[in-house]
Specification:
The chain is mainly alpha-helical and 163 residues long. The protein has helices at 2-23, 28-32, 42-60, 80-96, 120-144, 155-162, and strands at 105-109, 115-119. The chain has a single domain, classed as Up-down Bundle (Four Helix Bundle (Hemerythrin (Met), subunit A)), CATH 1.20.120. The mean pLDDT is 91.
Length: 163
């Protein structure tokens, strides 16, 4: 299990880096331009991915989060380095865990104050899958903004470069 989850968090870090290459090509206007999607701009979608990764990592480390971390940020207070650091921290955390950790339960309280107990392996898979889902939305947004060179972030692409 550990090797699979380590590969998945490494993939997530790589895919987030690929997305940031596109984000860095955008103007501030494009970054914040309204586009119909789950979150109505590239900036808000990036923030949402970051929020989720940050919150789930904190929960796995035994910390309670009472609000979305991005609520404390303004347009100028968030950087792509923060986004990538969060994915790197998640990856480092999973790599440092013992094999038995993944079978244990993560006890946490969600933002509504409800308590849950979920296996750590499930939490990790959920968070990585969540990032993949929203990166797909980013690709569509990038196309709508006129970007022509958008890298593939498919898991199979990552697997090919890991050989």
């Amino acid at each position: 299990m550990k090797n699979t989850l380590k590969a998945y968090t490494s993939y997530n870090l790589w895919a987030n880096n690929e997305m940031i290459k596109c984000v860095e090509k955008l103007s501030q206007e494009q970054l914040h331009q309204t586009i119909e999607s789950s979150f109505n701009s590239v900036f808000k979608t990036i923030l949402h991915i970051w929020d989720a990764e940050y919150i789930w990592l904190q929960r796995m480390q035994g910390n309670s989060i009472n609000d979305w971390p991005s609520k404390m940020m303004d347009k100028e207070g968030f950087s792509t380095n923060l986004f990538l650091a969060s994915a790197a921290n998640f990856n480092d955390f999973v790599n440092a865990c013992s094999d038995s950790f993944f079978d244990e339960n993560c006890e946490y309280t969600n933002l509504k104050g409800e308590q849950f107990s979920t296996p750590f392996a499930t939490v990790i898979m959920h968070c990585m899958n969540h990032g993949t889902y929203h990166r797909g939305q980013l690709v569509t947004m990038f196309r709508q903004l006129g970007l022509e060179e958008i890298p593939s972030t498919d898991l199979m692409t990552f697997a090919k470069i890991q050989k």
